[in-house]
Each structure stands twice: as structure tokens, then as C-alpha cells.
Amino acid sequence: MAIAEVTVIPIGTGSTSLSPYVAELQRVLEKQEGIQYTLTSMSTIIEGPLDSVFAAIRAIHESPFQSGAQRVSTSIKIDDRRDKASSSEQKLRSVQAKLQ
């Protein structure tokens, strides 16, 4: 399973507030099949098979254009572990266990 951290930034929107765009991105993700996602204060974490993750990233990259943005900057970081099952939750548990 792949885990991706994605930040989508519409540029030139006329406002410094991005929350309406972020809310729309979450609506788009709700419609994507085969993934799980978590909104954080700085990005969105998307988990699932790599093809499904890429499809979701493409959909949320396109979303601000549909809302009138003329330019979009998307940053993506992917952790694709294939030697054993992985998830954001598992990664956090592993670190927390080492802190005890």
C-alpha cells in the first residue's frame, strides 16, 4: 500500500484563504474509490494501492481549476513499501512503541 502526503495550492485566487479549496478537495476525495485519506493542518494523507492514490491525486490537482483557479501547485511525497503491509497508523504505532 502506498502512502502519499499531498499539498494542493491554488495560485492567484484573489484571497489568502484556501479553506474553501481544501473543503472541495475533501469532497473530491470522498468520491474516490480504493483509498483512505486524512486531512491534516498542512496537507492530506492518502493511502491505498498506488494506481488509486495517483488517480486521487490527479482528481484533487484538477479540482481548483474547476473552481476557477488559473494555476495550481501540487507537492507530493510518496512512501510505497512493498516488503510488508504499511499504513499511517502502523507507522505511528511503530514510533510510539520505541518511545516507551
From TrEMBL:
Residues 77-92 have a biased composition (Basic and acidic residues). Transmembrane segments: none annotated. Belongs to the UPF0045 family. It comes from Paenibacillus woosongensis. It holds the Pfam family Thiamine_BP. This is Thiamine-binding protein domain-containing protein. Residues 4-96 form the Thiamine-binding protein domain. It comes from the Bacteria. Residues 71-100 are annotated as: Disordered. SUPFAM superfamilies: MTH1187/YkoF-like.
